[in-house]
Fold this sequence. Notes:
The chain contains eight helices and nine strands. It is α/β, with parallel strands linked by helices. The strands form two sheets. Strands 5-6-7-3-8-9 form a six-stranded mixed β-sheet, with helices on both faces. The protein has helices at about 55-60, 95-100, 110-125, 140-155, 170-190, 200-205, 225-230, 235-240; strands spanning about 5-20, 25-40, 45-50, 70-75, 80, 160-165, 190-195, 210-215, 215-220. The longest helix is centred in the last third of the chain and has 18 residues, at about 170-190.
Amino acid sequence: MDNKVLTVSGLNSYYNVKTDKWGIGTARRQVLKDVSFEIGRGEIVGLVGESGCGKSTLAKCILGMVKDHDGRIEHGSTKMIFQDPYGSLNPAKTVGWILEEPLRIKKELKDPERNKKVSEMIHLVGLDDGFLVRKPGELSGGQRQRICIALALMMEPDLIIADEPVSALDVTVQDQILKLLLKLNRELNIAFLFISHDLKVVYSVCERVMVMKDGMIVEQGSDEQIYRAPEHPYTRQLLAAVIDDPVRDGS
């Protein structure tokens, strides 16, 4: 695949678990097993599977948050949007301060330049400058998630990992956030790894889908291939449980 923003090859990850009630004995358990895939610039790739299958562990490996792994991970600038928009924002700071924080490491940027960047970014996610003086606790769940998206975009990443980004929102707000992500993908050509247990949501936004079970990617292909003609029994099981006839939202 040309113009790749992420390559994962032969990835295995592990964690230590306690083997006795005193916490003295530990054993090394494997979570991810020989995971391999690529994401190209501007692609939206879905990762689906039941809770505990290893989806979030994969995201943490890519971001360097899980150190006990082997295999190959190559990517450029990557940011993450989390499931809980409130927990990922500093409740004591204003939105403007939060959005400006990653820009402070760029010493060459003066205050006016940082302020301009912050204003541009908050407008890009559908809010206005009035939100910059508010704190996260004063915002709705959808507004907080828009702030999280703006924060992820601030350093102009090639790839955004969206881990269950709409599962904490009601259906109407979910639709608004999904449309925003699609708009950003079209306008900025940013790639997304979209992680979700909700197959309907994944179908509505993703061009390509990977199915994970027990730490392995058991099937991957185009959205039409996975949803219309799944090959793996587990994929068919997932689809039979929730979807009769998925139709992509053309908006």
